């Protein structure tokens, strides 16, 4: 479990700089340059991600059951992850309603993904992993909205034609991941 926790600290710590140390981040970018900052950020993120995957795999070998998830939990998780998969591309597609309404669709998507997986998994390693991501998503979303208000950010109104791409891309990615990749990469087939 210690490798999983170390990975979460590194990965989510790196992703939390804007939450807790925005001025420090800006000073580092000014000093290092944006390219070098992004390179360092990417290396730290990759190290954290590798440790999370490795640590989660190790922790799965000695499962600690905290609760038995309710029968309906996997169905709710499927719905929440479908929405999350739509929100991920919506974060990068300009002029869509998701961005207009949610403001920060990728962070909201991470929160939905984490919450869904948290209620569908009663193992200690899952609670640590998905609980950490859920807490991070809530904190990051709140910090991003505070920055928006402080900077007077206004999100333009979305159009239905710009909603199509995130929905189609999200649904296709969700289908590919749920029916093919999740079992291969994670070792769990969501629909048996």
From TrEMBL:
It is found in: Membrane. It is a multi-pass membrane protein. It holds the Pfam family NnrU. Its main location: membrane. The chain crosses the membrane at residues 37-59, 71-92, 112-139, 164-186. It comes from the Bacteria. Keywords: Membrane, Transmembrane, Transmembrane helix. Residues 3-190 form the NnrU domain. GO terms for cellular component: membrane. This is NnrU family protein. It comes from Paraburkholderia azotifigens. The lineage of its organism: Bacteria, Pseudomonadati, Pseudomonadota, Betaproteobacteria, Burkholderiales.
């Amino acid at each position: 479990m210690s490798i999983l926790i170390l990975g979460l600290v590194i990965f989510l710590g790196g992703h939390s700089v804007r939450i807790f140390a925005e001025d420090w981040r800006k000073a580092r970018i000014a000093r290092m340059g944006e390219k070098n900052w992004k390179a360092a950020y990417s290396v730290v993120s990759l190290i954290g991600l590798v440790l999370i995957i490795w640590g989660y795999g190790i922790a799965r070998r000695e499962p600690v059951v905290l609760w038995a998830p309710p029968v309906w939990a996997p169905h709710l998780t499927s719905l929440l992850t479908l929405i999350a998969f739509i929100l991920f591309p919506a974060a990068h597609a300009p002029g869509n309603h998701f961005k207009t309404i949610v403001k920060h669709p990728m962070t909201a998507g991470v929160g939905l993904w984490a919450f869904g997986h948290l209620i569908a998994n009663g193992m200690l390693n899952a609670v640590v992993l998905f609980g950490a991501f859920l807490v991070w998503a809530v904190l990051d979303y709140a910090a991003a909205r505070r920055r928006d208000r402080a900077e007077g950010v206004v999100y333009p109104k979305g159009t239905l034609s710009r909603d199509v791409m995130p929905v189609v891309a999200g649904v296709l990615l969700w289908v590919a991941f749920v029916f093919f990749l999740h079992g291969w990469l994670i070792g769990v087939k969501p629909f048996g």
